[in-house]
Every structure is written in structure tokens, then in C-alpha cells.
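So, is this right?
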Amino acid sequence: MTVVYVIVAVLFFGVLVGIHELGHFAAAKACGVRVEQFSIGMGPAIFKKKKGETEYSLRVVPFGGYCAMTGEDGASEDPRAFINQAHWKRILILVAGSFMNFLLGFVIVLLLYASVKAVIAPVITEFMPGCPYESADGLQVGDRFYSINGRRVRLQSDINRFLDEDGSYDLVLIRGGEKVRLDDYALSRRSYEGETGQYFGFRFGAAEEATFGIKLRQSWATTKEFVSLIWLSLGELVHGRVGLQDLSGPVGIVDLMAETGEQAETTSDALRGIFYLGAFIAVNLAVMNMLPIPALDGGRVFLLLVTWLIESVTRKKLDPKYEGAIHTAGMVLLLALMAFVMFNDIFKLIRG
């Protein structure tokens, strides 16, 4: 079955790249920009066809793709060239790829929640023996969490995200149909008899019907949580708590997705695990691609904004060759990093 999961993972990468480039392509066409080539994959072409002014191709290596527009990296006399479009049009085209990846991640999560019949409500159903928070002035059975530090609580999973560490919180509860405030309420995890790990000491067990609205909110909350985890990981990288050797590229991610499928008890669980991981990867690509780094779409947007600011102040148009040179240098460094990560992934696979 491992081979099947590898194939599923590889196909997903093809879809991921295709959706990203389709975002650029659709935005470019909508803005009237001339698109010369639209390719899914890299390397030799398996299929190639020219329709109108655009050549479409499917290539051997699924880890990549491109939407080549006229005047993308230099001056052009063509009025439909990318470089000759208004700044807002160029930004829209550049952002469209990441937007489509983010949307794909959200849609996958929503589809995974589609079969959910009920969710756990944010209502306290019991306390662990000896929990210090059960009192007339504190928490009580039947309390429904309404907000934590001003953040609206809609599902029990929201509480797990908002009470992320020991500390003091401003809680608003629904008790007997009325709102009860517990300002600067100190909460800390502790060990309880018969329990493994540390907990706040209150449990939730009331089930509510999973309406479409609840599924939509839960999917949105999960997708936002992906973004938070990605920013947390970037912070770990910046502060040196993780190194470049800990990064994974397409090879490592395909291996992880295949391993996720192989460790699942059933094929259904395997596919759910793979697609949940796939949703995270889609959102990860959306966030990473918008970082203000040359050669990435975020870097292009950043330089575009800087160029627009300089031209607005000086009233002089900057030569696009400088921006092109910066992106070329960034691309060389990015390709070097990708090569390092790929060989590191292969080495990990060989080492076992």
C-alpha cells in the first residue's frame, strides 16, 4: 500500500502546483495580461498544445510549474505585458497563486468535516476530583464559554486554542441564560489522580449537531490554526531552535504523507490523514510563498510596493532590470536551498 500512498501524495503535489499556477493564470487573463506558457510540472513535456496565444503543457516532474507572462522580468513594448500593467493588477496576479493554495487548504478541511454529525459544545460537564476551579465564585457545571480574552468561543476546540498556556484570562460564561464575567481569572494545569498528563481540570462532553455553519466555522478555525503553526515554526527557525537540516521539501513531504497513510488502521483513516496533512501543506505553501523574499511572490509584491513608493516620490520610472536582477539572484539562492533540502531528504530516506 505504500506505493499507492506515494502515488496519492505525488498526485496531490501536482494538484497543489496546478492550483497555484491556475491562480496566476486566471488573474493574468482577467487583467488582460498576455500569458505565453502555462505548465504543470517541470522538465520534458509529456503533453503540449497551443491554444490562442498560450502554450499549455504537462511535464514529467510534478514538483513545479509556471505561468510565463510577457514582460514578467523585464521591459517590454507590448501594452499587454505584465510590466506595463497598473500596480494593483500586478499585485492581484502575484497574490492569486497563494490565495488559491489557501482556498484549497480550507476546502479540503471543510470536506473532511462534511461527514461530522456532531461536535463537542464548549460547556463544562464535569470537573476532575480536586479541581480548584469549581466554586460559586469560579466555574460551575453547565457553564458555557462565551469568550476568552475577548475572542469568541464557538466550539470546544476553540478553548484548547485560546487557553494555550498557564496564566490569567478574562472569561465570559453563559450561566442560566445570563452572561457571567470572570476577569483576570488565573488558570494553571496540574496533575490529577488517575490522569496521565496535566490538565486544567474541567471536562466537556455535551454534543451538539454539526450544522453547516458550525462546520464552516470549525474549518475556518482549523485553517487559521495552520497559519499560526506555520508562523510558530518560522519563529523557531529564525531564533535558531531548528536548523535548515530540519526542513523538508517535496521528497520528505511525500515520504511523510506515505508514512501517515501506512500507519493508519484503515484505508479511510489513511486518506483522511493524508488529505488533512495535504491541507496543511497547501496553507503552508500559501504562507511561505508570500514571505517578502526575492524570487517568491511575496518578494515580488514587496519590491513592487517599494518601486511604486519610490516612483511616487521621485516622479521617475525605475528601470525594471534592477528588480529583475534582484529576483534572479533570489532565485539562484532559492534553488540552492531547494537542492540542499532535497538531498537532505534523500539522505534521511537512505539512512532510514
Remarks:
- Helices lie at 2-30, 87-113, 156-162, 212-238, 250-263, 267-289, 297-314, 320-351.
- The chain has two domains: 2-114+273-351, 118-209.
- The radius of gyration is 25 Å.
